[in-house]
Amino acid sequence: MDTTTALESIEIKQLGVFLDYLRKLSEDGISEENEKYVLRHLDTLSFFSNLITEHIFPEIHRLTINKKILGSNKRIHSIADLKYPPADKVKSYGRCNYPNQSILYSAFHIMTVMNELKPRMGDLITQTTWKVIENQSIKYCPIFTNQPLKKNTINPRLIKYQNEFYKALSIYTHKEQQMINLLVKFVADSFSKQIAPNRHHDYIFSAYFSNKIFYEFEKGEVEAIYYPSVQEKGSFENLAIKPSVFDKKYILSEVIESVVVADPSNGGGGYFMETISHCDQFDWDTKKILWHKEKYPQPPAVINGLKDRFKIDLS
Question: 3-class secondary structure for 238-282?
Fold first, then answer.
């Protein structure tokens, strides 16, 4: 082994040791006390690389648990309440955001969102479908290294990104390829980490890399992050989008208001919803949902029964 090769091998090994140290910090759990210490260590990483691509996503889905916005099972009237939260209302780390940083989270299947947010029996929820405006594409960074956690299962969409990535990686030296692979795997592990609801500081790693992707890659031109859903074991994906990009490229298409009548926590085996109303008419001047123009209203007896049972306010 010549001197150059030996030095390269040492650099690769040092990076691997450092990333393992960060993994240990992640496993031990992050707290408010060691938050700044962890961020300082992350800042010592001298490089970061990942695949960036572009695609048109015709339709995305969101879900809002009404009481988390309005404090109780009240009907939502404002379209703004169905989008991203104002930055000053964001008090915690999220998968792709720092505190005081607003990001629009969405998915491609409503059940993916349901499993992510985990509404409970009795919750009034609002499902929304958003359509792309004029076939605008999005420049995004996919997180693709970790395949589904289910045995003998693969995600073909992630395989496609892996193939694109390794093709792009071929222009780098052997040392650069090894180091990039180590870091990309660490980033994917950060995005795949299961986080307990009361441990928001544990999102610090994926939030850190998300911030770099959104505001440092391509001079801040990356618009979204495409990453596997932890709750769906990596079989389906989520899309986190910059608020300004979402406002420019997507428009509300459909709103479905439902109440959760069973959820996995109460032995229901899954989620079961009773639809209250469905609307696709909006006042774009006032940014309001025109519930009085709902297309599929339930009979009054059904509505009143649900309102009484789950203390729902549809005014």
Answer: EEEECHHHHHHHEEEEEEEEEEEEECHHHCCCCCEEEEEEEECCE
Q: What CA–CA distance (Å, rounded) separates 284 from 278?
A: 18
CA distances in angstroms from 299 to 117, 122, 238, 272, 305, listed in the order given: 29, 20, 35, 19, 10
CA distance 52 to 191: 16
Residue type at 285?
Answer: D
Let me know the angle formed at the C-alpha of 141 by 140 and 146, rounded to the nearest 5 degrees: 140
Q: How far apart (Å, rounded) are the C-alpha atoms in residues 130 and 71?
A: 25
**Separation of first and last alpha carbons in the chain:** 76
**How much is the pTM?**
0.91
The residue written with tokens 């009548």 in the block is 261
pLDDT tens profile 76-94:
999 999 999 999 999 999 9
- Residue-wise pLDDT tens digits, 252-263: 999 999 999 999
23-26, Cβ contacts within 8 angstroms, sequence gap of 24 or more: 23/186, 23/189, 26/190, 26/193, 26/202, 26/205
Q: Are 125 and 273 spatial neighbours (Cβ–Cβ below 8 Å)?
A: yes
CA distances from 56 to 131, 164, 238, 242 (A): 11, 17, 15, 15
